[in-house]
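[Solved] Which block belongs to which protein?

Original post:
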Amino acid sequence: MVTPSPRIVAVDYGTKRVGLALADPLRLFAQPFGTLTPDEAVAALEKLHQDEMIATVVIGWPLTEAGEEGPATERVQQYINRLRKRLRGVEFVTWDERYTSELAKVRLQEIGGTRKQRRKKGRVDTMAAAIILEEYLATLASE
């Protein structure tokens, strides 16, 4: 029996909603997983870690326009600390998430759907997580 590779997960953290995306077992593609509350996302990640093992969590790091850390990065760091307590042995990677929400909106528009569907913030959060993960996977592929 072949044991699947531990998963790589991306997190687009927000105080109300957390977008999640998963890499496929071969680590080639990012698959949107969904948008949950911060508490629900912790529980979903715990279950995924128990069921399939998570190797890495790539979490969006909300730098300012000038590329500096601020109050938003402090909130994300608190969430990372919370996840670390629940996801033992998992590597955490912060990833510059500037412009991922704008890219997500463009991608959702390209995919189609009604304007109302594209404006649902949960869809944007999930797509932003997928974009973060795609960028991270691209760096792994180029190594």
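(Second protein starts here: sequence line, then its structure tokens.)
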Amino acid sequence: MNNLLIVWNDVNTVGIPIIDEQHRGIVTVINSLYYALNGPRSEDFLEPVTNMLMAYTKVHFSAEIDILEAAGYPDVDNHRRQHDELIADTRRYAISSLKHDDARIMIDFLKNWWINHINREDMLYKDFLIKQAPK
């Protein structure tokens, strides 16, 4: 039985070790909530996982923006705006999930975040950062 919503593989890497580690951490959080969702006590996991995700995004987004700025990434302002929107969306979906006691609301949001931000938007800076990396 596969209890994972997202299976990490090399396609998901951006080639910057700390960002890749943090992305793996986000996948762990998503998969933990997904696992709980399919168990008898998913409601017990929703609030702690949501709190963990809120804290994690602050750390991750700060690190990612710092790296993009240091590398001179030309679209850093747009990426920062996307992060601000994701933080607001995370809060909104967390509140809705908790209000309705429904982890599926948060799972759907997180899956969409994984597909649309991490696997699309973050991949846009991948080649730029790899070219900027010290040889």
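Accepted answer:
You had them paired correctly. Confirming on the second one: Residues 24-132 form a domain with the Four Helix Bundle (Hemerythrin (Met), subunit A) fold (CATH 1.20.120.50).
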